[in-house]
Amino acid sequence: MKLGYLEFVEVLSKQLLNALNLQEQQIFFKKKAIDNKDRLFVETFENLSGKQLCGIDVKDLYERFMEGSSMESIFYSVQEEIEKLKTVGMLEGKMTPDSYQKIKKYLFVKPLNKKNHSLEMEDAVHEDVGDIACVLYMMRSNTNEYFTGIKIKNKHLEQWEMTKEAVMEEAFKNTYQMAPPLLYTNHGNEWGEPFMENGASCLSKSDRVRGIQLSTNAEEYGAVSVFYPGVLQRLAQLMASDLYIVFTSRNEGVIYSVNESNLENIKAELNEMVIKYGNGMVYEDDLLSEELYYYSRIEDKISVYMEKVKVSFTTVNLAEEH
Fold first, then answer.
1. Is the domain of 263 the same as that of 202?
2. Band of pLDDT at residue 255, cut at 50, 70 and 90
3. Which tops the pLDDT comparison, 191 or 210?
4. What's the confidence (pLDDT) of residue 310?
5. Could you tell me if 215 and 259 are in contact, meaning their C-beta atoms sit under 8 angstroms apart?
6. Which of 23, 154, 213, 286 has a Cα at 20 to 30 A from 261?
């Protein structure tokens, strides 16, 4: 189906009007509206500040249409973005358990350094491991697999009548689907295939000793993959060992075999990384953690690594003392 530009705008407007149950005055087209670009405006929600509009760059959509994207695919992508904006509006008002059912598919988790982000985490929902906070967000946009979002607050959990544990579990599942985990081994030049259901052949002796990088297909904030359910358990299975974990940035973690790696070398590399961040040689916002972490297969748990204290003792014969 070939459409002229204005015909395309009219068809898209009618589809959105019907799908979103809008009144005709709630959707309108305006040429050179913002940044000298044509926009199709859709009323998404109303709050104390007034009516909130979504301005759609229709010229960009029309170019996609002319390049071969179907009208149906363009319509569904626009509809989804508008639905996301509506849920953003819901966060500003009184929430209900029904609200959670509409919002939960947009929840995701982002890892942040607790010290560097302490102020912005006030009243935000998060789970902590060492100096890392896994913070709960609702997706606002998803561009080229880069997620932007709005932090979920503790008051929202109360209004949803949901526990933090249940909501975080849902969010981790979503994040896994949005950005699946991938490995970078020592004998490849590109991010590898998903490993959760593959065999152990992808891991060499060198991988277990020198470590493998764990991230996601999105890479940005890819260190969240370390906290995905089942991921460390799977890597421990592939390495037949407990694991050491170093977060070289917010984008990845490096996983080592406890049985085959050299702990002193790992600690030296971690110390060198921390010094680089401290001296401004690396962008500070990329820093996720200054700690060495340990994954126990028996406990199925990640925690900050604690040195085992050697205790010296002597035996005393009480009869000889007295």
1. yes
2. very high
3. 210
4. 44
5. no
6. 286
Structure-token pair, residue 18: 């019907």
Pair 231, 168 in one domain? no
Half-sphere exposure of residue 36: CA atoms within 13 angstroms, side-chain side? 0
User: Is there a contact between 133 and 117 (Cβ–Cβ < 8 Å)?
Assistant: yes
pLDDT of residue 181 exceeding 70: yes
User: Distance between alpha carbon 264 and the CA centroid of its chain, in Å?
Assistant: 31
SS3 annotation, 141-205: EEECCEEEEEECEHHHHHHHCCCHHHHHHHHHHHHHHHCCEEEECCCCCCCCCCCCCCCHHHCCH
**Separation between Cα atoms, residue 92 and residue 115, nearest integer Å:** 27
Amino acid at 188: G
In the 3-class helix/strand/coil scheme, how is 73-120 assigned residue by residue? Answer: HHHHHHHHHHHHHHHHHHHCCCCCHHHHHHHHHHEEEEEEECCCCCCC
CA separation for the pair 201, 214 (Å, rounded): 17
Task: For residue 25, give the amino acid letter.
Answer: Q
What letter represents residue 314's amino acid? T
User: Which of 101-115, 196-210, 252-266 has the weakest average pLDDT?
Assistant: 196-210
Answer with the one of 178, 199, 215 that is the final residue of a domain.
178
At 87, the pLDDT band (50, 70, 90 cuts) reads low
d(CA 143, CA 134): 21
Element (H, E) at 33: strand 27-34
pLDDT digits (tens, 9 = 90+) for 29-86: 988 766 667 888 888 766 544 566 778 888 889 988 999 889 998 888 888 777 766 6
Tokens encoding 69: 């994207």
Q: 9 and 66, same structural domain?
A: yes
Three-state secondary structure call for residue 50: strand
Q: What's the whole-number mean pLDDT along residues 134-158?
A: 76
The domain in which residue 17 lies consists of 5-93
pLDDT of residue 157: 92
Position 319 scores a pLDDT of: 55
